[in-house]
């Protein structure tokens, strides 16, 4: 008689009410338990490591040791821009530390430290985060993101490997983290202390684009005029700021960058060095970077990600470019209009993305040789403007996904690589921009080393005229000639 347990309609109604109340209470209890367990989890995260180490301190010293933020003269500096930390198993080089409380980080804030470490699996270390205006600090366990891939080579101990060290802690509403030190065993003297970078816009609004350029190494080549053409074109396309990292450059290029930095604020230049025992005298470093290609690429990860993290709150997108590359929109007159249309397009088809990538196409030197008809109309362009006078490109794009450059979304990525995002809050999604909308024009003497065998067939034989860049010709010629005269570069 399972089906007839109710004797009357009213009893049935009452029980139904009771059942509803019962379920409502059950739900409240579950919600209550969940909320509290989450809260307790956060507290544990906060205090566990802290208490642990405090207990250990008492054990070791018979009293709590007073750790103080190290004075600058006690810091173990390395090659000017780095700090060294010698652990019991591996040497760490810290470059910069950043405050990450982006929405996708959830209830946690994270201090992220860009580093090179001479181990593939570094040992367990702790972060001590110092807050402004309070003497005490908190301690959290660090975790690692390896910002390289085993397949790319140099996957071995002793060679410096790029890492992002993460120090997560519960978000603090009224406390601002100012410094971070890393250590292995508490109560030992701390000899590293990194100021936590947390660049915010003055008016709360993000700007659209910044471009970052890895460490410039042009000791003898004078590319100053090409540099001017490139910077002006980026500015015409809507780039608000270009961040350069610099090893060594020709004095003429230096003059150009200083002009932009001093007079227009369009450019920011930051000196860079290689950490550890890698060479830093100009000639030796140049040779090293030319010959040790994998080491060079591992080192390049640092400026790429440094530039990304410095700007996560300031720009919507970061683009990493070399000074011989430019992303040309083919239907719009600037990047902003193009990205705006792409954002609408992907929202319409309900697809999210961490990066939008532009296909790579070669504009090689001498593609116009043996062809007299090509030279027509070039006379109106000054011959010293490299991009405006190189209007022949390969017919074929390099293959999809190779040598691309991306617009990196600043809300969604944890680590960037030269071409695409390496680590994202969720699985990285890079969407390719249709070649009818934009492509990456790469101006080179010849193909990159890996493609040199097939260069003649794939990239030189089939060529076409592509004057898309001429849509920006008038303002580009005007701006460059004005500046060249100003800097006395035109005779
Ligand atoms: C504290 O000491 C215990 C053992 O005494 C050890 O397992 C633990 O790793 C230590 N914690 C820290 C933070 O040094
Ligand atoms: C150092 O760490 C590596 C793993 O990264 C391990 O294989 C090695 O045994 C450790 N050496 C010492 C002395 O603990
Ligand atoms: C710390 O905060 C108090 C009160 O807000 C203020 O009076 C004091 O000057 C601050 N000290 C420092 C070092 O900022
Ligand atoms: C730019 O500013 C720096 C530092 O103030 C100065 O040394 C340099 O001469 C300036 N260069 C130019 C081109 O204005
Ligand atoms: C968009 O995608 C999400 C999951 O990716 C899905 O839940 C949602 O229903 C989709 N919306 C539309 C309008 O297709
Ligand atoms: C020369 O250029 C013209 C115009 O782009 C093209 O039609 C022609 O095929 C080219 N000739 C050679 C030999 O490449
Ligand atoms: C050269 O310029 C003229 C007028 O500016 C134009 O009509 C012609 O199509 C151009 N020729 C080429 C090959 O672009
Ligand atoms: C390059 O384009 C030509 C058509 O012009 C095509 O026949 C050839 O297969 C392409 N090569 C590659 C490597 O895609
Ligand atoms: C690129 O755009 C063209 C024209 O708008 C369209 O025909 C083509 O299907 C698109 N390709 C891809 C891969 O979306
Ligand atoms: C660059 O500097 C050199 C001297 O180092 C000078 O002779 C040359 O004319 C300069 N180039 C330009 C374009 O001004």
From TrEMBL:
Q: Topology with regard to the membrane?
A: Single-pass membrane protein
The compartments listed are: Membrane
**Pfam family membership, one:** Glyco_transf_92
Q: Is the Glycosyltransferase keyword given for this protein?
A: yes
Q: Which UniProt keywords apply?
A: Glycosyltransferase, Membrane, Transferase, Transmembrane, Transmembrane helix
**For this UniProt entry, what is the primary localization, expressed as one broad class?**
membrane
- Which parts of the chain span the membrane according to its record? 20-47
Query: Can you cite an annotated GO cellular component?
Result: membrane
The Enzyme Commission number assigned here is: 2.4.1.-
Q: Single GO molecular-function term?
A: glycosyltransferase activity
| PANTHER family the UniProt entry points to | GLYCOSYLTRANSFERASE FAMILY 92 PROTEIN
Into which family does the record put it? Belongs to the glycosyltransferase 92 family.
Q: Give the protein's recorded name.
A: Glycosyltransferase family 92 protein
Give the originating organism: Adineta steineri
């Amino acid at each position: 008689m399972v089906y007839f347990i109710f004797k009357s309609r009213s009893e049935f109604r009452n029980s139904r009410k009771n059942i509803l109340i019962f379920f409502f209470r059950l739900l409240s209890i579950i919600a209550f338990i969940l909320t509290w367990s989450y809260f307790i989890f956060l507290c544990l995260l906060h205090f566990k490591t802290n208490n642990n180490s405090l207990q250990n301190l008492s054990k070791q010293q018979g009293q709590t040791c007073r750790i103080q933020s190290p004075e600058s003269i006690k810091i173990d500096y390395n090659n000017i821009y780095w700090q060294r930390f010698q652990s019991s198993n591996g040497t760490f080089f810290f470059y910069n530390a950043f405050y990450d409380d982006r929405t996708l980080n959830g209830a946690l804030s994270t201090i992220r430290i860009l580093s090179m470490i001479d181990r593939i699996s570094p040992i367990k270390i702790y972060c001590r985060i110092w807050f402004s205006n309070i003497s005490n600090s908190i301690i959290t366990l660090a975790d690692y993101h390896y910002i390289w891939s085993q397949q790319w080579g140099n996957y071995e101990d002793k060679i410096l490997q790029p890492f992002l060290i993460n120090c997560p802690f519960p978000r603090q509403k009224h406390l601002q983290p100012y410094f971070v030190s890393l250590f292995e065993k508490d109560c030992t003297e701390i000899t590293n202390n990194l100021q936590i970078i947390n660049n915010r816009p003055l008016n709360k609004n993000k700007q659209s684009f910044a471009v970052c350029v890895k460490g410039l190494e042009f000791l003898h080549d004078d590319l100053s005029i090409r540099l001017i053409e490139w910077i002006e074109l980026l500015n015409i396309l809507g780039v608000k700021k270009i961040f350069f990292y610099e090893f060594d450059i020709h004095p003429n290029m230096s003059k150009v960058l200083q002009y932009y930095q001093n007079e227009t604020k369009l450019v920011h230049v930051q000196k860079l060095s290689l950490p550890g025992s890698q060479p830093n005298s100009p000639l030796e470093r140049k040779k090293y970077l030319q010959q040790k290609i994998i080491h060079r690429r591992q080192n390049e990860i640092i400026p790429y990600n440094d530039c990304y993290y410095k700007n996560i709150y300031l720009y919507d997108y970061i683009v990493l470019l070399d000074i011989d590359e430019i992303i040309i929109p083919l239907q719009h007159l600037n990047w902003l209009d193009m990205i705006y249309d792409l954002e609408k397009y992907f929202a319409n088809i309900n697809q999210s993305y961490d990066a939008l990538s532009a296909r790579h196409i070669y504009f090689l030197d001498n593609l116009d040789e043996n062809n007299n008809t090509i030279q027509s109309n070039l006379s109106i362009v000054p011959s010293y403007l490299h991009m405006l006078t190189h209007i022949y490109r390969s017919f074929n794009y390099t293959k999809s996904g190779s040598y691309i450059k991306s617009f990196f979304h600043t809300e969604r990525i944890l680590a960037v690589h030269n071409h695409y995002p390496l680590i994202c809050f969720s699985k990285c999604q890079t969407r390719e921009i249709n070649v009818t909308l934009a492509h990456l024009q790469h101006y080179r003497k010849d193909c990159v080393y890996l493609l040199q065998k097939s260069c003649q067939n794939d990239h030189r034989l089939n060529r076409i005229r592509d004057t898309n860049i001429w849509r920006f010709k008038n303002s580009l010629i005007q701006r460059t000639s004005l500046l060249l005269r100003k800097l006395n570069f035109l005779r």
